[in-house]
Structures
1.
Amino acid sequence: MLQTKLTELLGCQYPIVQTAMGWVADPKLTAGTCNAGGFGFLAGATIPPEEMERDILATKALTDKNFGVNFHMYQPNAAEIVELVIKHGVKAVSYSRSPGKDMVSRLKDNGVVCMPTIGLPKHALKAIEMGADVVTVQGGEGGGHTGSVPTSLLIPQVVDAVAGKVPVVAAGGFKDGRGLVAALAWGAEGIAMGTRFLMTLEAPVPEITKNRYVDCNNPSEIIVSRAMDGLPQRMIMNRMLRELEKASAPKKLIIALINGLKFRKHTGASIFGLLKSAIAMSKEGEMTPAQAIMSANAPMIIQKAMVDGSPDEGVLPSGQVAGVIGELLSCEEIINSIVAEAEQRLSVLAKLSSGA
């Protein structure tokens, strides 16, 4: 009952995608998702190229299922990641909507499914023009960088706009089978979830940070802020976010420059490479140069919570759905429960439509 164009294209059992959260989507989580019948993406925007190859090989050792790799078109080592994806026969890539036509062509010429994340109908059409095979559409409930249009309104808009050219995957606010059925009813071919997979036993996030997500039982505490890089991001309110909200513009810029240098050392990128990426983002996207520089904040401040286990010293990107998730489960338990509930709801709907 749950075979769709997405499962056919990606070669997975169920139309359930685990998104590539920085510092979170490692080989264990990605393989756990794939082995349970979903489709997982490795995070590739926050690690050096040699570690990307290590993680691809580690994932292959943990699963014989298809999986994907995420990266940012403007990160300094983007071309290297593209070649690693091709070299190791990775099934798909996900990336921002930022145009990178040469890279997309290189990937498509080698049979890699290109699956950008977008937030508006016009962005979906642009992504398709640049060669996208699938578009993941995130509504305002989603974590990290997000828009203001609710998922329930945005998905039908994008489905109508793309008019069947490519499958649409719905993201933002999903955690169960009822959500999957709703997405299918809107015309999507599947769902993508980040926060739900962050809150799993397989996720490498320290327990103290995971518990901060579990303890957040009020969706209204998961707010949209521009304090990180000047662009709207949805995060759980904590001490660090409050400090960033209160900081002056010069102080935020100083913090960003410090974090940019840290990120350069971590990834091995040169200062020139980082500046070049910042300029490219400001030219092609909707970022100002200051916002592009401030984007260096995100990886290193998120690392404090997701890697170092200091949830109040870092920020906590999260979809609002964390406010209604009260436990940590395995990837298999989550996917099995979603599938069982979706099939049950679809059976009920089928009976209603037949008048039984």
Note: The mean pLDDT is 89.
2.
Amino acid sequence: MKINLNKIDNLNAELSIELVAEDYNPVIEKKLKELKKTVNIPGFRKGMVPMSHVQRLFGKETKYRAIQELIYESLSNYLKEQNPKILGEPIMNNQKSENIEVTETKNSIQVVFDLGLKPEIEITFSKKDKVDFEKIEIKEEDIDREIERYQNNFGTYTDVEKTEDKELIIGNLRQLDTEGKVLEDGIKVDAGFLSLEQIKKQKDIFIGKKVGDTLTFNPKKILETTEEIARLLNIQKEDAENLDCNFSFEITQVRRFTLAELNKDLFSKAFPNVEIETTEEFRQQIKSEIEKLYLKAETNKLYQKIKEYLLEKINPELPESFLKRYLSETNQKYTPERVENEWHELRKMYQWQLIVDKIAEEAQIKIEQEDLLTIAAEDVEASFRMYGLSNIPSETLMRLAKSKLEKEDDVNYYYWRTLEQKVLENVKEKIQLKEKTVTVDKF
């Protein structure tokens, strides 16, 4: 067996593998012997089929399979042992490779694989490297909005005698025919609910109504969207689009929403693990929470700017023709046309991977299991925040974070994110950050 690496230039190489009969014949013979023990052929007992008969029936197929397996095994071993710095995976060069059928007339075969080589890149940093770091200004109205959100979240509904403007009415809905009678097979909803704040038209129909009153309305004429109609009547959106008729609504309950009072009860519900005595302390705690949220956004934007800066500064060369071919031949979703259309972004993806790997190698950055759990827990916490939930117990976050690391693909995803973050943190400490304060709108 002969394996030879031929560098075409700094970014491309060819790997040729030549197998001779002495390499593959023993493998073929072994496979045929194994086949002889297990194959079922009419007229012969299992394991007693003459080798000549096995050879005649399965020899060609077995030979091709054995040679193909040996080629890729040799390729894999070479890459592990010699560890050439390549991008993607080797691709067989069909024009320069011999077909396995050549072994019918000669006692050797040669195949050639194209390789894309990683470029040699040098990365240095100093305080001459400058990147803008935008910090968001927190205003009093930002805190006011958060206070109102907490008051809404922990507000309460109470039963009232009649409707005024913003109540929630609950009752039984029945679809009516053109004569105003209940449609026997029509839409019926028990304990349906409607907020008067939703109603933009014909609102006077609902004002001053009490429990026991029955009113008539057309949902299409009082509600603005088909989604609201579908939700009210518990039907599909498609059905709501074509609905244009009256409904009766027998009111069984009128409820009024009251914002939670700004007191210790609200403070403890909003931040159960923090001792808050006064409104001013509550505002400070909210400001601290906003700062945490803004810090995440500020850091993400900073990291994006550092990434763009490094891509422009280093701009590694790539074996572009090889990578385009590699993508289109190994990934079904990438046609040659799509690769060309998206190459600008794909090119940056490969370049960024090279930069991250190089910085991580030089800085000796290591990724531990705890690092993966930390970033997975951050994702879990962010998901809770989307629903207005904060101060989630750490054991809950860790349990959910571990569940995000059960699949190999997810582990790889979090490994890359963690490595990328550590690299960016490393770079941040070595360059100059030009801080400037901006409004949240400007940010």
Note: Residues 130-142+269-438 form a domain with the Trigger factor, domain 2 fold (CATH 1.10.3120).
3.
Amino acid sequence: MRKFLSILCLTAAALCGSLAPASAAVKVPPGNRHAEQPPIPGASTRRTRAGKTTFDDKYEKIRDLLASDDDLRSKIRATASAYGIDPIHIVGALVGEHTYNVDAYDRLQSYYVKAAAYAGNSFKFAYDGEKIDDFVARPQFSTCAKFSDSYRLWTCREEVWEDTFRGRSVGGKRFPDNRFSAVFFQPFYAGQTFGLGQVNPLTAMKLSDLVVKRSGVAPLDEKDAGGVYKAIMDPDISLDFVAAAIRQSIDDYASIAGMDISGNPGITATLYNLGNTLQRARALAARNSGGARNWPEENYYGWLINDKLPELRKLF
């Protein structure tokens, strides 16, 4: 889900911002701030060319799947309702992922088949023989012990990784200059995501408590990599994590940046694509702390969703 090429005007690094009550959140205007689509990352273009297809073809394929599958649309409606969001936000995430990152299967059943292919496989979250539960037990992560909820706990751990371990030698062991999720949470190959929403395993770990609360799904455990993959690949569960990511981004921007993004699917799609909404909300709050009003901006991914919004809304 996190892509590093972003047009989003949230890149000024600020690790904290003044909290604004959700009730005071200013509604972000609908539509795109950019007249033309921001540049699409080269990696996405190369993947699409390698598949001998085009972005237009991939967009039409996921749009047609949504249009033709009553069961999928029903699941989306029910999931959106459970998380208190407009279904168009889930649609935006699915359309963006399957237009720019992967190619959609023709039928929902194919996603179930793919998920079943991984069921029962034995693998673990680890790096160079060190399991993730042992890694986060290192003393450097002690500052995260004060957090009991999965979102703040795993966000804290990710920040410790960035500040202390990424690209550094610690205790005689050299760690890669790469994202926490790519190093410890993708045992097959870096950058791997799965399912309808292409959810990253670390993202799922962060959102576990919210999904438990809203949907009653069993909590995820970093020691059970197979259980995490089942959750993000099974369409009956993975849509909950898509919705939870969107719900969390809306809440982060309302409570931290004082911005209500719930009426702009292009912004929620952008944040779904980029991830790390807590840090991005803090950065925007810092930019606006002097009384300025900088709106969050869509990237190439979110721009498409706002541009296609009239067509996508007809699906529901």
Note: Residues 33-125+185-238+297-313 form one domain.
4.
Amino acid sequence: MPGAIRMRFLNFGHFLDHYVLLIFPTAVLAIERDWQMSYSQALSLSTPMFLTFALATLPAGWLGDRWPRVHMMSLFYVGCGGCCLAAALAPGPVALSAAMAGLGLFAAIYHPVGIAMVTEAATRRGQALAVNGVWGNMGLAVAAISTDFLAERFGWRMSFLAPGVMALFLGGLHILLAKSGSRAHANSEHPQPAEAPSDPDHRVMMRVLTFVAAAALFGGVIFNAVSLSLPKLLSERLASHTNSLSEIGSYAALIFAVAGLAQLPVGWFLDRYSVRPLLFVLFISQALLLYVTAWVTGYAILPVAMVLVLSMFAWIPVSSWLVGSYVPANWRSRVFSIEYTLSLGTTALVVPALSWMHGTGYGFQDQFTLLAVFAAIVLLAAVVLPRRRPSLNVPSAA
């Protein structure tokens, strides 16, 4: 498969991955009305999706360093599409939870495999990761607005059916293009870096991985909690102004879309300057904004949430850039799998935690205050990062 076409599939795959994971948190507002369930009961139906997503990320990374990654990307597209169709046809809560479990299983493929492919193919790693990250953020934005639109006009089942058909079509196209590629392209799944000047500094690498682990764990909780709760947060804080699902979805989509563009200047910065000052600014801002979000009400929630999500999304390419810059190429899928097991996999804990806190009276004030503390922890972890920039390429490990 030609490199330009492959990169388009990688970028749209990131879009699709975040889209399918965010269908349920928005559709749940319609599901709870349709099936006469409370919000906490309906939200808990998505727990299997995030559980399998967390459990499957590590084996996906292991396979990504051993099996042709282009084949795994085909499996990602076809699997996500099939599980979306199963969710659309689910006759009841048990079947819907099973479909969500399958969706999490196949969605787990993208980050350890797709992001590793992006870091290997790019000459300007920061820019490539930023563009790829924007595609993922657009998946969040489009999921919020399109799911509300489809659920409100055609029922929540259509919000799974439409992306499922699209994913299956793209999966079939990806398989055809992969088969038509030359043997040279097939053998380029694990390309060697252009240079291998020396062995990587293992002490520096361990410091970087320490930060990546802390940012993945605590930053992952922040990212997932805010992403999952944003529609409900806007619904509560704007309750005296609107109760329209489509309007709330439009606000969430606008926030995700505008904030997602923050990765572009971050990618430019990463290709030129030291990462430490950038992280200090981002996480100081994030801690303050999380605390403000805990208390603000009315339409003031919209600009505050916008800047919060902007700071939250801006740091996403930083971890991938650190892994791509300090970790040997033939270990990256496994390192990415560990990172994303901690970051995105925390959703398996975030979903029941949010359900429990809502059910026991701990609202968004308590939740976002706790998230502000987590942002401060990531800020402290950034102190261990090296001050100087790394060399462009990292050799393969022996």
Note: The chain has a mean pLDDT of 81.
